[in-house]
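= Tokenised fold =
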Amino acid sequence: MFQIKPKHFQRILVGVDDAPDARAAFAYAVDKAKRDGSELGIASVCETGHTNVYQILDKDYVHSTQEDLKKRINEYVQAAIDYGVPAKKITAIVDEGERPAERICNHIIPEYQPDLLIIGSIGKWGNRKSVGSQASYMTRHAGTSVFVIRTVEANKDNK
């Protein structure tokens, strides 16, 4: 017989935006950080690529300016503090680039050095067997443990 020893992570990084799956990932990350006494990095990427009409109309599209994003990240930080994660253990990270998954893997992770990345995944409705393209990229390129959170709401929103 073997002994079960749950893995406790020292530095958790969670990628956030306003999509339901990202909010679920944030909730899980905050709870895990509190239970494990871990440091918590809360990261979001301000997309600088060309915005098309579909993105503008999408209520979950990443905030348009870095200033807006900084304000939103501060709301996430406050929510983590309110939940019980000590403020001194929280790092807010706002980055900028065309491809959020690549920015997280190639810039944020090497700088923050988490031992766990928690992300949400929006897969297309009816395709529960695959993850979204951003989550897929990060699971392959993060270089650390990755926990992908999915929600029923996220999949229903993407019919």
